């Protein structure tokens, strides 16, 4: 039988609402408390979702909290996660896991020393669409993947997020903000990366906020906003990945993978669901409806949104003594890939990876059903 581990959140901002809303769908976790440096934000979220508000120190000292979910801004991820581990609790962080390889390695070592788990978003690769792509690749139907493309381009965050400042500072930018979804999915599909190269640019030194309540305010940009990267995987696959917040319109699909026997069009890794297209050499393949994965069923308007799947998987993995899918090793490797892309852009050359990781275990439809309450 799966017991529920007590979960507390640090960081009562924008994304905390999704965790508090979707958490009850899953086995193995019970969201109990929310904390923030800003007590008003914590109180408001706590009231909205019927959990208790805590100070950060109060949450870390709470006996009924086993796992702390770190939903603070990227620049605070390392310090907050470290304090959680020092308080003797497991930690699951929003992406990006940390901002440097050294920070990630320190957390991983601390967790190992204390016998605690560290997990990190994104968990969208556990979605039905991406798991089906994984299943097709692993079945050998499209042959070995030899190359591919990934495009994630738009015009930034200042038109919707109420406080978009952090997106334009080191630790964010499109590679570290939206790149985790793409890099993590590529690693689960193709395995670890061996080396990267990149060219980067910052076309606009300031961005104009058009969202409320700060409409009209200009914010500085401290990190590249257009990044063209090349990734060579240990498998030999070569991927072009373009991330930008300086593009109004484009006609590229999110992700295409080219195999020796066919092509896969992969939907946006920022989401759990989406349409897959497959070819057998040049001919379209009719994908059968047999793959009924619970994490591709729309539950949020037209979207399949199963955020907390990675958290629930970690909670259950702790109890079963098995590895969790959104692991620190995977997150650390993704951080190294992304920070190396930025470093490669600065030096205009190649950067070799020093970390590697196992592909996370596939999440079959039956395994996904096991995570649902
Ligand atoms: N907003 C989204 O749609 C979204 C989606 C996916 C992932 N994320 C990730 O989730 C994280 C949070 O994003 P957000 O949009 O909710 O940000 P946000 O700015 O809305 O909220 C962050 C909250 O963290 C609090 N905080 C900051 N530093 C803290 C500290 N040291 N201790 C305690 N509280 C602290 C802030 O007071 C704020 O309430 C980021 O890492 C982001 O990349 C956000």
Automatic annotation (TrEMBL):
<protein>
    <submittedName>
        <fullName>Gfo/Idh/MocA family oxidoreductase</fullName>
    </submittedName>
</protein>
<dbReference type="InterPro" id="IPR055170">
    <property type="entry name" value="GFO_IDH_MocA-like_dom"/>
</dbReference>
<dbReference type="Pfam" id="PF22725">
    <property type="entry name" value="GFO_IDH_MocA_C3"/>
</dbReference>
<dbReference type="InterPro" id="IPR036291">
    <property type="entry name" value="NAD(P)-bd_dom_sf"/>
</dbReference>
<feature type="domain" description="Gfo/Idh/MocA-like oxidoreductase N-terminal">
    <location>
        <begin position="6"/>
        <end position="119"/>
    </location>
</feature>
<dbReference type="GO" id="GO:0016491">
    <property type="term" value="F:oxidoreductase activity"/>
</dbReference>
<keyword id="KW-0560">Oxidoreductase</keyword>
<feature type="domain" description="GFO/IDH/MocA-like oxidoreductase">
    <location>
        <begin position="130"/>
        <end position="264"/>
    </location>
</feature>
<dbReference type="InterPro" id="IPR050463">
    <property type="entry name" value="Gfo/Idh/MocA_oxidrdct_glycsds"/>
</dbReference>
<dbReference type="GO" id="GO:0000166">
    <property type="term" value="F:nucleotide binding"/>
</dbReference>
<dbReference type="Pfam" id="PF01408">
    <property type="entry name" value="GFO_IDH_MocA"/>
</dbReference>
<dbReference type="InterPro" id="IPR000683">
    <property type="entry name" value="Gfo/Idh/MocA-like_OxRdtase_N"/>
</dbReference>
